[in-house]
Amino acid sequence: MEYSEKQKKAVGKRLKDIRCAHVHKGRTLNQAEFGGILGLKGSEKEIQAKISKWETGRINVPMEYIGIYSNIGGKTLDALLASPEVCEQDEGLSGTEVNNDEELRMFLKDLVVAQAKIIELQDENKLLREELNSGGSVKKAPARRKGRS
To answer: Residue 98: beta bridge partners?
Structure first.
């Protein structure tokens, strides 16, 4: 989906608001730290640059990250992606205070587990599509055993 420049900037501002509302130990996470929560890969500088481009509306954010932002910020996808005119009436975000390291650790663990499941489902979907496109019959993949990759 392609957005106008005005809409990209509005979405970027909402993403920045979510990041800035996420407080840990009394301070806002910087772009690189927040990118780690999102599961971005790369050097700290690369992650910071990517988040910066998203927050300024220079590039579109991939939908899987929009979904993560919406979960973290407690906003619907519609609210994040709405046109700027619709959001002028938005009340804004309240801060999300994380009181201790254990709470943050549990949150990050849940996020990583959810991301791993998404990747697993995407891989299975890709295999099924390839098999269907090659004219083969669809076979269910064998169940994975815990403890094995």
So the answer is: 24
| Complete DSSP assignment for 87-146 | HTT------EEE-SHHHHHHHHHHHHHHHHHHHHHHHHHHHHHHHHHTTPPP-PPPPPPT
Backbone angles phi, psi at 96, to 5 degrees: -105, 100
68, 51 in Cβ contact below 8 A? no
**Could you give the strand order of the β-sheet that contains 96-98, starting from the edge strand earlier in sequence?**
27-28, 22-24, 96-98
Lookup: tokens for 12: 């970027």
Dist. CA 113–CA 144, nearest whole Å = 16
pLDDT tens sequence across 45-71? 999 999 999 999 898 888 888 888 888
Give the pair of three-digit tokens for residue 69. Answer: 């932002």
- The class that CATH gives domain 5-98 is mainly alpha
Neighbours of 149 (CB within 10 A): 3
